[in-house]
């Protein structure tokens, strides 16, 4: 009770001093006393691209031909054996799946329309493309 | 292709591929499987474990289960959407009023700074900056579409970053010309940039080209490099973890190796870099190069070992993708005069291309070289094709990784016989007067 009374007195005294100009108001309302400024926004709107739906999925991989396409990230041999391991997995676990491994022409950022055409014309049912990173 | 396609990426970039790249670049919600990192260059045993034993980092399911499901699980409603995307976040020209402290914090919270304090870009300050050019504020300087987003960088947006960096209006044409090369290099490696200024503008804006030129000792060198960084982060929209993926990054991105050539102290017959690129000596030109590394000579040239020999030795550690050798006028004079007698910069470039050698395995052992050049080698491009075949037959054979045209010589600084070798390529220059 005594502590509460002392605290109350201290607040009254501080307020009186502030009103009398003896304690800077900025000490009580630090931010509110600072002037506001308006600045320009450095960011620029990014535009989203049109949405393209995915191709319908397969019911099953049984009997299907899957192309594994190496995009050459890190060089032609950097990740190629990942695709060989995937092929080995299918050979062990679902030999009805026909796996075809291809290297994309050019470096990873370049398009390869000839390969996409080849996959379509040779009856590719699906494709795994990678591996970046 | 019209058939089910699945992307495969390492854990370090799969979130970017499924997020920002989807929204702003390709628009297709491609299903990805994420391999543990690292993938590239790992032995077959590691790749075996990724496929047979490890989980997909996207779904946390066994890798092959994830791959099969990516091909066979029916499409979700989100994966069937076509046409116009949701509207992107609107960026108002003016931000809400704030105290200066709040501005500093707000800009940091949005990753718009280099985490040093900025000058708040008030309308008054930006208007003053715009007086440095005759170009209208709403003129588009460049359309930025890397890493996607199709952002229109206007003269005013460049002025905002110039103010933030502490620039003065008289520097603004140079800053505008430099902004043509925004954003800075961005890859999983520690890519960076070099800003090289040539011509009368160096002296007009009082750049330092004559002493301690690569240190923090000149306002314009500092501010020009900093503006490039701020523009790369704001207009370029490059933010760690969202649109950049480098593990180490680069300290060079704070100032982008901003230098001005000391054209006044070039030896006779050695032309300024912009002249060698086809500009007139009286043109003011800024040239931005991309690279990763610079290595100091550390000490000064010693009598028993001519500078070109030590430069050659240091260049062996570069990838061979490009080089810029930065020398003081004193080193240039030693190289120019008898007995070394390189009458022109091109003579020195040719000598270095002819004499820098590294082993086949060292050359192709670099991930960037393999990523960029191996596919060209496989397609039969010489000399890469012949060099690539040596990986199997003679990996310790020495090859010449540089062409003379890839080796640039820049003279700057003054007062010692020191130099740097760097792997920065020198791109096409931009005339500053076009932005006055």
Q: Supply Rg of chain A.
A: 35 Å
Tell me the helix content of chain A.
25-40%
Assembly annotation? heterodimer
Structural class of chain A: alpha/beta
Number of helices of chain A: 4
Beta-strand content bin of chain B: 5-15%
Across the major sheet of chain A, the strand order is 2-1-3
Question: How much helix is in the residues of chain B?
Answer: 25-40%
Distance between the termini of chain A: 67 Å
What is the averaged pLDDT score of chain A?
Answer: 83
Main sheet properties of chain A: 3 strands, parallel
Beta strand count of chain A: 3
- Spans of at least 5 consecutive residues with low confidence of chain B: none
Strand order in space, largest sheet of chain B: 6-5-7-14
**What gap, in angstroms, lies between the N and C termini of chain B?**
49 Å
| Shape descriptor of chain A | elongated
Protein described:
The complex is a heterodimer of chains A (133) and B (436). Chain A has 133 residues and is of the alpha/beta class. Chain A folds into two domains: 1-31; 65-130, no CATH class. Chain A has four helices and three strands, in the order ααβαβαβ. Chain A has helices at residues 2-19, 25-28, 80-93, 113-121, and strands at 65-70, 98-103, 126-132. Chain A has a three-stranded parallel sheet, with helices on one face. The longest helix of chain A is centred in the first third of the chain and has 18 residues, at 2-19. Chain B has 436 residues and is of the alpha/beta class. Chain B has two domains: 6-80, no CATH class; 100-357 and 400-435, no CATH class. Helix content of chain B is 34%, strand content 14%. Chain B has helices at residues 14-18, 20-26, 44-52, 63-72, 100-109, 123-130, 155-165, 172-179, 201-204, 219-234, 273-276, 307-315, 329-336, 345-355, 360-364, 367-378, 384-393, and strands spanning 5-10, 31-35, 140-144, 151-154, 192-198, 258-260, 285-291, 294-296, 323-327, 358-359, 398-399, 407-411, 419-422, 430-431. Chain B has a four-stranded mixed sheet. Chain B has a four-stranded mixed sheet with strand order 8-13-9-12. Chain B has a two-stranded parallel ribbon with strand order 1-2. The two termini of chain B are 49 Å apart. Chains A and B meet through helix 3, helix 4 and strand 3 of A and strand 1, helix 2, strand 2, helix 3 and helix 4 of B. Strand 3 of chain A pairs parallel with strand 1 of chain B.
């Amino acid at each position: 009770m005594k502590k509460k009374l002392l605290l109350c007195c201290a607040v009254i005294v501080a307020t009186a001093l502030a009103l009398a100009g003896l304690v800077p108001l900025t000490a009580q309302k630090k931010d509110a006393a600072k002037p506001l400024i308006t600045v320009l926004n450095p960011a620029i709107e990014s535009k989203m691209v049109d949405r393209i739906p995915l191709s319908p999925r397969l019911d099953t991989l049984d009997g299907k031909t899957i192309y594994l396409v190496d995009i050459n990230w890190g060089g032609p041999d950097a990740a190629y054996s990942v695709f060989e391991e995937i092929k080995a997995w299918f050979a062990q676990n679902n030999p009805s799946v026909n796996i075809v491994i291809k290297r994309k022409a050019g470096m990873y950022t370049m398009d390869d329309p000839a390969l996409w055409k080849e996959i379509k014309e040779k009856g590719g049912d699906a494709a795994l493309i990678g591996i970046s990173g | 292709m019209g058939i089910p396609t699945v992307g495969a990426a390492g854990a370090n970039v799969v979130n970017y591929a499924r997020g920002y790249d989807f929204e702003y670049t390709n628009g297709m919600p491609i299903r990805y499987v994420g391999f543990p990192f690292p993938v590239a260059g790992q032995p077959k045993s590691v790749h075996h474990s990724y496929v047979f034993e490890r989980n997909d980092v996207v779904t946390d399911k066994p890798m092959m289960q994830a791959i099969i499901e990516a091909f066979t699980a029916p499409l979700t409603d989100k994966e069937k959407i076509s046409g116009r995307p949701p509207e992107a976040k609107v960026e108002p020209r003016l931000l809400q009023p704030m105290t200066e402290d709040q501005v500093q914090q707000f800009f940091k919270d949005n990753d718009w700074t280099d985490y040093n304090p900025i000058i708040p870009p008030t309308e008054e300050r930006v208007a003053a900056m715009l007086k440095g050019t005759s170009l209208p504020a709403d003129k588009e300087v460049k359309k930025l579409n890397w890493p996607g987003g199709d952002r229109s960088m206007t003269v005013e947006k460049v002025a905002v970053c110039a103010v933030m960096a502490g620039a003065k209006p008289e520097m603004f044409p140079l800053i505008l010309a430099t902004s043509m090369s925004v954003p800075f290099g961005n890859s999983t490696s520690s890519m960076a940039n070099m800003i090289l200024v040539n011509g009368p503008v160096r002296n007009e804006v009082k750049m330092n080209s004559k002493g301690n030129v690569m240190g923090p000792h000149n306002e314009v060198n500092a501010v020009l490099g900093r503006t490039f960084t701020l523009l790369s982060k704001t207009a370029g929209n490059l933010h760690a973890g969202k649109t950049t993926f480098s593990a180490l990054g680069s300290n060079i991105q704070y100032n982008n190796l901003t230098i001005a050539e000391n054209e006044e102290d070039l030896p006779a017959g050695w032309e300024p870099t912009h002249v060698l690129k086809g500009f007139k000596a009286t043109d003011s030109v800024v040239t931005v190069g991309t690279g990763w590394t610079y290595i100091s000579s550390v000490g000064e040239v010693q009598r028993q070992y001519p500078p070109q020999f030590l430069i050659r030795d240091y260049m062996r550690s570069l990838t061979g993708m490009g080089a810029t050798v930065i020398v003081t006028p004193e080193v240039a004079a030693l190289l120019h005069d008898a007995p070394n007698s390189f009458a022109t910069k091109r003579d020195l470039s040719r000598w270095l291309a002819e004499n820098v050698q590294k082993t086949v395995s060292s050359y192709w052992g670099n991930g960037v070289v393999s990523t960029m050049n191996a596919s060209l080698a496989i397609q039969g491009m010489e000399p890469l094709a012949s060099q690539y075949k040596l990986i199997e037959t003679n990996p310790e054979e020495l090859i010449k990784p540089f062409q003379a045209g890839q080796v640039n010589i820049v003279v700057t600084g003054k007062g010692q016989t020191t130099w740097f070798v760097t792997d920065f390529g020198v791109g096409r220059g931009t005339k500053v007067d076009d932005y006055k």
